[in-house]
Amino acid sequence: MSNFKDAQNKAHPNKSNTLMSALIVILILNVGIQIWLLYTGLNNALEDNKDIALPAFIASAVLFLISFCWLYFLPMGYKKTGKK
Amino acid sequence: MSDQSNQDPHWKEDFPVERTEATKVSRRDFARFLCLVSGGLAVGSGYVAVKANFFPPEKVQGEHFICKADSVPTGGTRSFVLAGSDIPYILVKLETGHWRAYEQKCTHLSCAVYYKPGSSQIVCPCHEGFFDAMTGEVIAGPPPRPLPALEVVVKGEDIYVRAGGTELAKK
Ligand code: FES
């Protein structure tokens, strides 16, 4: 069975390097947003505005899911051998 | 399933023999680490949400006697703790004659704050945080929130505190 992973693994390193950088930039972006969400949720909860905490958690969880699925697209590096 | 056995075990991907196959190992690890951090932050937010919604901090119950009114000079302070809790509070008699009671923990990083006589400001020495002694609001510095307050009740010569000072101070 051949899927996009095989093609990706055989792609030129220049290509997968770019892809790798893009993936990492998005992950860092996600983590940045999550830090902000946690900070805001916590500060508002301590100030007795607990309405913020739940949406912040949901958003954070969604971002985590995105980050997690994102890992599927990680290039596995150049494979010389034909087999997976 | 049968061709699984002649494949390399999964971990060998991270320890390849060929150098060209190793070019992405550390970045792959980094990306995975970022994902782990992301999960940690999501769990943290969840903890905050659960704590805020289901385990709110306990309110001070009832009224508590602190001291006699004449034992605190004008512009003076007195620190106290309420029975059954270990949060330090500070009772302030302002130059204007108002009584105020605040938590003595700075809302930035919990340093002990003190009243600066004559300035009607409560000062946090750690990172130069300043609070308005009348309302508890932040005037300057890093603290993100006003000081939590208690309501002070003067009954003749006796000083009592009870919950609800925050709303009062905001008025
Ligand atoms: S702990 Fe009070 S200003 Fe930082």
UniProtKB/TrEMBL annotation, chain A:
Keyword Transmembrane listed? The answer is yes
Q: Which Pfam families match?
A: DUF6755
Protein name, entry field: Uncharacterized protein
Which keywords does this Swiss-Prot/TrEMBL entry list? Membrane, Transmembrane, Transmembrane helix
Regions crossing the membrane: 21-40, 52-74
UniProtKB/TrEMBL annotation, chain B:
Where does the Rieske domain start and stop, copy by copy? 64-161
Matches recorded under CDD domains = Rieske (cd03467)
Alphabetical list of Pfam families matching this protein = Rieske (PF00355)
Say if the entry is tagged with keyword Glycosyltransferase: no
Q: Membrane-spanning regions, if any? A: 30-50
Gene3D superfamilies associated with the record: Rieske [2Fe-2S] iron-sulphur domain (2.102.10.10)
State the name under which the record lists this protein. Rieske Fe-S protein
